[in-house]
What we know:
Elements: H1 3-14, H2 18-37, E1 47-58, H3 69-74, E2 85-89, E3 93-94, H4 97-119, E4 123-126, H5 140-145, E5 147-150, E6 153-156, H6 163-168, E7 178-181, E8 184-187, E9 200-205, H7 212-230, H8 246-251, H9 257-266, H10 287-296, H11 316-322, E10 329-334, E11 342-347, H12 356-376, H13 385-398, E12 406-407, E13 413-414, H14 417-433, H15 439-455, H16 459-472, H17 477-495
GO molecular function: ligase activity, forming carbon-nitrogen bonds
Protein name: Glutamate--cysteine ligase
Amino acid sequence: MSASELAAAVAQALDVDAEAFQTRAREEAELLKEEVRSGTFDNTEAIVGMELELYAVDDQTDALRRVPRQLLELVGFEKELGLHNAEMQTSPVPLNSHGLAAQRHELKSSLMPAQERLGTEGIRLVSDGMWTVPPTGETAREYLCDAVEEDGICIGTNMSDSVRYHTMANTDYPSAFELDAPHVSLRAESVMPEALITSIQPHYQIPHAPDLPEYFSYALRVAGPVLALGVNAPFFPPDLYDDAPDEEIVDDAHMENRIGVFESVLNPPEDDPTPPKVCFPPDFETVEDAIDDIVEDDTIVPMELQSGTRFDDGFVHLRHKHGSYWRWVRPVFEGATRSAANARIEFRPLPAQPTVDDAIAFEALFAGLMESLPKLEHPIQSQEWETAEDNFYAAVEDGLRADIEWITADGETTTATDEIYGELFELAREGLELHGLSTEEAHEYIRPLRERADRRLTPARWKHEYVRRRVEEKVPLAEAIWGMQSAYIRHQRETLLDGSFVDWLE
């Protein structure tokens, strides 16, 4: 799509009657509630799935690479925000030994031929929380901020030609479009700085849709400790740092900058009264409350939509609103057919992981916890919401070194890391065994994460220690970060499909 065609499509989207769109969404929400109450969104078993985002680099230099759209389609991946991004989704499967194995094999069977085909063009896909080496001949600031104006419409030069992405830069919603992190500052004209980050997103499908609030409350309370295990984005591209001593930048680094990037780019500035869209969500009393929260969330890009042939196209305006309902844990109501209609929890805080088996470990951990915690009526549900939120943002800053508060099965409050994770892993194991996995199988899926907790070493801490050592040796920060990135990609080349992060440590 040419810039002029894209600008025309954006201008057309901006002319949509927002009030009429919102009215339709509210009407659809009432229909959705009726369907939920009637059992349409219930399922006989728990279902799991996953989204995986990657970025592309030059196979020789590790510099960020744009992926030609035709080539991306050829390897069966979907486009994401940036021209360097690629995304895939696994097929939803029942939570059991065969289902988890199918998730693992699907990821590997898609990634292997994609890497081989892209490799003929000198491109490699990387699973990582944030890229740090900009395209050859460009700075990260230039790549993220480059934009043109076409007929009064701002078009991000390095963004995919999705009308929705570009319309977000031209609406009245006051997204800050800036980075706000220790020693980092950047202001853009579009959402493109969000293309710094990539994620994995495990999904867990609720058997009985009206029970979603109970499962959701547990998901919020495990969000902090689970994120602390997965942190993987401590450093930005070096040219984005302000003029500060290298040692100070390293000392002040957060272990998971992906959270802050998403929030500071898409939320309004702090002095704006508009409620933030990217945030730690509230508890819900009822499933209707969850639907209402989606309905009343600010719509950034209303569109004129027509119902198609899918069952959930009866809620097409509500589904469109959900696309910009950016909560770190969020409820989802979808289904291509009435029989496939489902209510699920999408767990969104996790950055992309070093290997496929690490990603699957998080899927197994989250699903196992969602099975066991409600069945056991675990007392962590009584934890104050504010404490769960504090745990979450503590994990963002310090990973496994964060002061996280947990309530044990005995009702005792603890901040002891070994006690917290010892219980979490056992609860996840029990949940997996409830769905037919053997004790040995359950342990094997969770093992990569148990090793992280035992060693107190996450991918982010591995990166941070590498850069810290080099800076202490008087290596310039940029060289240290790029050296770390090269080492990360080198290790991943050997283990992405047949190994885990802990193999890097042996």
